[in-house]
Amino acid sequence: AAGLAACSTGTSPATRIGPASPAVAGAERARRATGAPVRQVSLNATVGEVDLGGTTVRTWTFDGRLPGKEIRLKRGEVLQARLSNGLPQPTSVHWHGIALRNDMDGVPDLTQAAVAPGGQFGYEFTVPDAGTYFFHPHVGVQLDRGLYAPLIVEDPADGADYDTELVVVLDDWIDGTGTDPDAVLAGLRANGMSMGGMGSMPGMGAGAMQGMGGTLLGGDAGDVTYPHLLANGRVAAAPTTFATRAGQRVRVRLINAAADTAFRVGIPGVPMRVTHTDGFPVSPRQAEAVLLGMGERIDAVITVPDAAVPLLAAAEGKDGYAQVLVQPGDRRAGVANDAALATLKTRPVLTVTDFAAADAVSLPEKNPDVMHDLALAGPSGKYVWTINGKTYDPKEGLPVHQGQRVRLRFVNMSMMYHPMHLHGHTFQVRGAGGRGPRKDTTIVLPGQTVEVDFDAGNPGQWLAHCHNAYHGEAGMMTIVSYV
Ligand code: C2O
Ligand code: CU
């Protein structure tokens, strides 16, 4: 495009602004107010048994809980988190969506050394923006074992247009009785391909592909699939209950922590007023169903009806669902029936490009100083997922300079969802009239192109990758590199 200084060549590590550079320390100083309150937490990554609701599995969690214990603090506060690694593998913690100092981002070999079994690491950073976030390791496919927990940053200036809150973390669950995510990944690599990776689809619009979700793990009859879908650690048949009162306004914070499943979320008959995407406010929008890709979050306010209702999360393009029962008073709730699920699946489903950032968080209009294309493609032969034809190489990156307006263009040339996540920044999706929602993860539907803009103001080395844990690990990952 005319007037754009596009660069697409890699950078050598010698020219990079590294995680431990003065620029990174300077960015942290600029974020931290004198006397900012400090929150201390400890996180023990551990092996043990958890009850999914009648099914007990042996797996890896933070502190034996699924999801791990929520961390909640206020914007501007400092989080000090001490990680102890009780796992048989090295690990780390990545603070998904937080614009933090680069050396606390939790990416082994890029921003820190992995924490060895038996080892510890102290994370410390200022949390600059309010919102709904979560955290998970950034090693292999450990996320898919159950190592995740919500991170909620409150805004002291929030008008609080609701009475109470419900945090819902969604997950897909392999089985825990002999098959684990590492084995699944090894199996995919041995089989060499997935169902959705083949070919590009010129001219295929996203609309035409709605409903064709990822069936990656079911691609071969002998492959492992996800027998369970979880909401707050519980299978659909034994859901958690949210006790409330009719007429209460509930702020629901929905987090998709699944490795390979996008969810269609909604409460049949109860409209949701979507207020935030990935923590940042949008022009509020009524929705009956919203598609939530892996790594994406929404906040929505609902008014509790007189009778109990299921908050449903149906796996998009797959069978199965998860649920939380919203139960006013002491009325007993029924488990979601097929009719409620079928209703949800017929409702119009909103996705990223249906939302627009609130004025207060919209980026000022500006032409990009630099533009990078990221062509997303799947296996043809070997099980690798690529960006611009390459798998992850820590020596390469997409160069940006401090102060630049950067545009990333995600071009999905495959038949699967790719929820593309950028570390350390919240970009603005270019929607209608250029103004889409602020997000850090944007699902890119099969055949779709999504453009996002951000201002380069957080120096360091930042991953940009697909939040399908298997795609990311199989190569669909690159670095936005401050030089
Ligand atoms: Cu939640 Cu690099 O990701
Ligand atoms: Cu992907």
TrEMBL record:
PROSITE patterns xrefs? MULTICOPPER_OXIDASE2, TAT
Q: Which domain of life is it from?
A: Bacteria
Keywords from UniProt, A to Z, are:
Copper, Metal-binding, Oxidoreductase, Signal
**Would I find Coiled coil among this entry's keywords?**
no
List the protein's name: Multicopper oxidase family protein
Pfam families of this UniProt entry?
Answer: Cu-oxidase, Cu-oxidase_2, Cu-oxidase_3
Q: Where is the Plastocyanin-like domain?
A: 52-157, 166-306, 375-479
